[in-house]
Amino acid sequence: MKDCCSHKERKKNQFIGNKINIALAGNPNVGKSVIFNQLTGLSQTIGNWPGKTVEKMEGHLNFLGHNINIVDLPGIYSLSAYSLEEIVSREYIASDEVDLIINVIDATNLERNLFFTFQLLELKIPIVIAVNQMDILRKRNKDINFEMFEQIFKVPVIPVVAVHGVGVYQLLEEAIELIYEHKFNPHKKEHRKKRRTHHHHFKIKHMYPKLELNTSSRELFQFPDLSPLLSFGKEVEEKIQLLEDNIEQNIGDTEKYHYPSRFIALKLLENDREIEKLISKDIHNSEIIKTSKDYRKNLEEYHGEEISTIISSEIYQNINKIIDSILIIDTRKETKKQSITDIIDHLTTHSILGYVILALVLIGIYYFTFIIGDFLGGLVDQLYTYLSTDIDTSTVAGKILWEGAVGGFFGAVGGVLVYVIPFFLLIEILQDSGYLPRAAFLLDKFMHVLGVHGKTIITMILGFGCNVPACAGCRIMETEREKKISIALTSLIPCAATMVVVMGLVGEYLGIGFVGLLFLINFIVIIFVGRILNKTMPGECTELIMEMHEYRKPNTRVIIKQTWVRTREFVFRSLPIIILIGILLEVMYIFSVLESVNIILTPITVFCLGLPAVTGIFLIYGILRKELTFALLEVLAVSIGVGSVSLLLSPIQMFVFSLVTMLYIPCFATIIIIAKQTNWKYALQISLLEITIAIIIGSIVNWGYFLIVNF
Amino acid sequence: MNEIKFNDSDQISKIGKTLIKCLTLCQKNEDVIVLSVNSGMKAKNHLANLGIVPGSIIKKKKEAPLRGPLEIEVKGSKIVIGRGIASKILVNCNKECNI
Ligand SMILES: Nc1nc2c(ncn2[C@@H]2O[C@H](COP(=O)(O)OP(=O)(O)O)[C@@H](O)[C@H]2O)c(=O)[nH]1
Ligand SMILES: [Mg+2]
Fold first, then answer.
1. What b/e string do you get for A391-404 counting C-beta neighbours within 10 Å, with b at 16 or more?
2. CA-based torsion, A372, A374, A376, A377: positive or negative
3. In this structure, which residue's CA is closest to atom 8 in ligand 1?
């Protein structure tokens, strides 16, 4: 034993810098992220795929002396080129950067999950199949014949219960073995029977020599012959073979395209634009593309169906034939009892109760975020005030650094972060439980009025907490048009920070009824903007197609982890910007630039909106963080000695001021996210549109009130 | 293993004799077989990936109010489909379709 350990130690050193790259791939909601989190712990980074607005999750771990790099790919249903996620995943998997794929599949939904597995197998890349959620399957008195599964697929297949960590390290063990052995040896698998949860329980069975990773392990890998499993019906198979031969004759080795020749043949037949683009870079290949067109036409005529339908249904037929031999159903114990999740599902999609629950959920999100944020924000403010007493801010530099940088930092923490954290927490719970698709189901019809389908309601709900992650979430929309409209609508949702202003002014001094009125106006503006964009943007509203997952008990670890990762991400992305602008504003203040800003803004603030001139600069600050408009008002009230904001603003001014704050522009961080998701032009257009709307509606309220009172 | 045969397209021809009807109007919780999907390319491909192809057995589970989307059960998972697309999915259910 001792020997083994020192041996291990020695080996470990050899492996430093020797990375194995693994990608987790599978349908949405199968448990990829849970496995990813189990394996990588906190050492993860969220980034974007180069040039794409698809999130890239990457993490590292050291397992049995191997340096392993894991990428959590976006959840997708197929490897076609219909969505950005699919294209990103496919290109990444095919690239040299991946040594092995762990295909995570949901045991309770084998057919649809295997559909994706079948496509992955065509890429002929080392693969380990993780059959996750075995706990749920077994609860339903079903099981899986793993020996048969492996016999049919000729790759390692591991039972996993990700939430309990069962089987996750075994995945890595299999992965490493596969990479080093260059092929799958099923007879070595007796040791698999015992289930282990922690990786220090693993015996070092095989110590592999240092891997020469510059000669890609993938090239050496002997992919099993799966032709009986993967072959299509006679007609389709014949055409694929012919096309493949054609490709091999003309192109020879398809290594330079990173895809196997059969995969290229299949995709060309399927009319896959991306692959076609790739192949047609070489003009000699135009013949191949022409042939594939002929074959496709041929097949479509023969079957009377479109090619994608033909191929999909043949894959599903193949799957149907193997499901019976893989899936074990204990018919004696099969129960048809209504479970608690069925009842919750029934209530939350009920045609009347469903809407009541939705309203309660929305109010609940806001309430919780606000209460907790307000409390924490108070603490942070006290801390800042306490720290400020000993600081000398009489010098210019001291003022810039302390009030600009440190003040900006505390402002960001106390004004934004305290709302963002409880909000992320709530949203994770809501998301993890599976509620949000129900809201999309209930409101889909209504959302069509605004030119988008029901999925937008999900991002809009997220927007109640913070517009920034919510607008980032608009990437789930299928078309560019829908993404743009969704972003515009989401950016109009009053976020937690806006609520600080509304509740502090109107809620405090005018009563909750007027808060309701503000909401109503905001709501009407959203409908109005949606209708305008729907009319003016070219293209049509697509229809909703969305999977509705079963409700699950939210997993505490997952939620806390996700909240932490998101918050950290938020902090690193936006805090530096907020601090920088804090410094900038402080500099402008010192050099009296702000006075002139107020004067320039007078026509709008004083004439149109009927507000005091000094509010001009507050509204400018508000772009940075909306709650600043109110916070500065309070500061002003104190500094000129009136004490209460109610002596500074008349009731109608309060109402108009809150209304304008709600509507006038997305905050700075949101504008940046919008620009990232679309482009700067669109971000500026949205901002301009919202400014215009705010001024117009603010003026109408101001002048309308004036006229009513005076005449 | 050996007795499993792959690829013979028997299923579609067997159901070829039934009358074509549409999904929006068939009864809830009734097993029906998809005959064809006549939506646009993109939606069709999306549905195919989710397991809604000619020959698959599906079931209407719910309908959102005011002619909203439908919830369909297919191969053990639940899919929500806008009514416009659902009306383009033809199945062999028992009610007449009015399109
Ligand atoms: N009961 C059970 N739930 C699981 C298991 N694995 C994941 N989940 C839950 O499935 C949901 C989706 O998991 P996630 O990792 O986010 O899926 P992803 O979309 O593939 O990344 C979460 O609510 C998890 O808590 C499992 O093995 N058993
Ligand atoms: Mg995930």
1. eeeeeeeebbbbbb
2. positive
3. A31
Q: Ligand 2 centroid vs A444 CA: distance in angstroms? A: 24
With vertex at residue B38, the alpha carbon angle to CA B32 and CA B40, rounded to the nearest 5 degrees, is 135
Q: Classify burial at A453, counting beta carbons within 10 Å of its beta carbon; exposed 0-12, middle 13-18, buried 19 or more.
A: buried
Q: Domains for chain B: give ranges and CATH numbers.
A: 17-93 (2.30.30.90)
The protein residues having their C-beta less than 5 angstroms from ligand 2 (an ion) are A 33
Q: Does ligand 1 lie within 6 Å of residue A162's CB atom?
A: yes
Q: Which of A70, A163, A553 is the pocket-test mutation for ligand 1 (most atoms within 8 Å of CB)? A: A163
B7 alpha-carbon distance from chain centroid: 21
pLDDT digits (tens, 9 = 90+) for A275-314: 888 888 877 778 888 888 999 998 999 888 888 889 998 9
Taking contacts as CB-CB distances below 8 angstroms, the residues of chain B near A550 are 78
pLDDT of residue B97: 45
Task: Say how far apart CA A85 and CA A25 lie, in whole Å.
Answer: 11
ipTM of the complex: 0.80
Which ligand 1 atom is at minimum distance from the Cα of A26? 20
CA B35 to centroid of chain Cα atoms: 7
Q: Which of A231, A316, A547 to mutate to test the interface with B (most CBs of B within 10 A)?
A: A316
Side chain identity at B63, as an amino acid letter? E
Rounded to an integer, the average pLDDT of B61-86 is 91
8 Å CB contact between A178 and A156? yes
A597: Cα separation from own chain's centroid: 39
Residue-wise pLDDT for B39-73, tens only, equals 888 888 889 989 898 888 999 999 998 889 999 99
How far apart, in Å, do the first and last CA atoms of chain B sit? 46
**pTM (2 d.p.):** 0.81
Listed residue (A189, A170, A77, A73) closest to A130, CA to CA: A170
The H or E element containing residue A138 is helix A134-139
Q: Which amino acid is at B28?
A: K
Res A155: pLDDT: 92
